[in-house]
Structure to design on (390 residues):
């Protein structure tokens, strides 16, 4: 029995660990002692389920390879992936195919770990985000994955992918910060930690130029966006409304620096005017046909329970006070003097419809349908707003 126990203790370090390192294309020296210990502990907790009791000395080189294969196909693989995430994959020559094959049920979608947030940060699901991160890291086209599923990766490419995935899974850094880009529809924007990751249901409404509420898009000449962040909505609005000048406002100089980079990329410096201002404070005099905003609206209760991904974002761009309506109240009330006679105010408030209706009781609000339902965005006509205030 002592000999059996001694043999069992040596398995992870003498054979299995080396085999695992070979499978993932990572030198044994790269593993920290904590990672090796975690593998060791997980190994012992699962090994009896795979091989039964006893016979620990009967692990020949062939048997060891078969044993590792069993580990990667059965319960140990699931347990190990759930705790170490990025560590286990197929051989390097099949890295892409393994992680992107929806038929692989042994933890292939390595970003689909407990608590990992992808949908609200730009990806529809973990599989899409895994594909995006791998393709971006390898400088492959994002819309043509099939030709590369059998790609053979160089050691440095494998290392780059693993490093990217480790930061995403372990540090919970949003994918857009890792790649310095975010997509809204067909529009691509530069982003970093100075701005929140662009995500807006208003963006879905821009290609149709807010029809049917805006009956003549060509007559729209002045647009104001409050809380512009990276400038994405202002840029999309300028692109959609050809005759409009867009004033884009943010209180953060850092955010406006990012917005300026995006405006320059789309060569819209002559049509998008960036203004540092606390809401309307420094906005030039005059009225606007459209005022849009995706302001900080997360209520204090929700702020306290945000997933870790959100903690990497500027909190000033998220927190909206006790009921999430602190800034929204100012935006709505002061819009009355800033809208033209037929002007429209459009406000995105996420999951805070109940708080918004309580804050603006009696105000005629039209809840606009988006991909997330009818609770995320409301619009108010200028005359209705003025009547409500009076």
């Amino acid at each position: 029995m002592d000999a059996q126990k001694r043999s069992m203790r040596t398995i992870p370090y003498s054979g299995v660990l080396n085999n695992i390192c070979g499978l993932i294309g990572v030198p044994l020296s790269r593993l920290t002692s904590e990672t090796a210990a975690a593998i060791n502990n997980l190994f012992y907790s699962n090994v009896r389920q795979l091989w039964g009791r006893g016979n620990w000395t009967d692990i020949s080189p062939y048997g060891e390879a078969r044993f590792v294969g069993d580990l990667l196909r059965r319960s140990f693989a699931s347990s190990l992936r759930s705790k170490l995430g990025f560590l286990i994959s197929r051989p390097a020559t099949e890295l892409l195919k393994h992680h992107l094959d929806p038929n692989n049920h042994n933890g292939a979608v390595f970003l689909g770990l407990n608590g990992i947030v992808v949908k609200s940060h730009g990806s529809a699901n973990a599989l899409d985000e895994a594909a995006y991160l791998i393709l971006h890291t390898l400088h492959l086209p994002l819309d043509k994955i099939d030709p590369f599923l059998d790609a053979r990766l160089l050691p440095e490419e494998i290392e780059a992918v693993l490093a990217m995935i480790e930061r995403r899974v372990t540090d919970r850094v949003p994918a857009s910060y890792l790649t310095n880009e975010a997509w809204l529809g067909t529009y691509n924007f530069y982003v970093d930690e100075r701005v929140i990751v662009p995500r807006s249901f208003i963006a879905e409404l821009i290609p149709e130029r807010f029809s049917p509420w805006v009956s003549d898009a060509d007559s729209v000449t002045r647009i104001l966006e409050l809380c512009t962040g990276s400038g994405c909505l202002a840029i999309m609005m300028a692109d959609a409304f050809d005759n409009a000048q867009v004033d884009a406002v943010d209180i953060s100089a850092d955010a406006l620096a990012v917005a300026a980079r995006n405006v320059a990329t789309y060569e819209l410096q002559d049509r998008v005017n960036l203004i540092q201002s606390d809401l309307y404070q420094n906005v030039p005099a005059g009225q606007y046909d459209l005022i849009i905003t995706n302001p900080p609206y997360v209520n204090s209760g929700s702020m306290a329970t945000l997933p870790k991904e959100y903690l990497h974002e500027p909190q000033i761009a998220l927190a909206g006070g006790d009921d999430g309506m602190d800034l929204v109240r100012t935006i709505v009330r002061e819009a009355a003097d800033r809208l033209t006679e037929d002007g429209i105010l459009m406000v995105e408030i996420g999951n805070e419809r109940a708080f918004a209706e309580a804050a603006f009781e009696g105000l005629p609000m039209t809840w606009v349908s988006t991909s997330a339902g009818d609770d995320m965005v409301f619009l108010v006509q200028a005359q209705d707003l003025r009547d409500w205030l009076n």
Observations:
- DSSP finds 15 helices and nine strands in the chain.
- Strands lie at 182-184, 187-189, 222-226, 245-250, 272-276, 288-293, 339-348, 366-370, 373-381.
- Residues 114 and 234 are 35 Å apart (CA to CA).
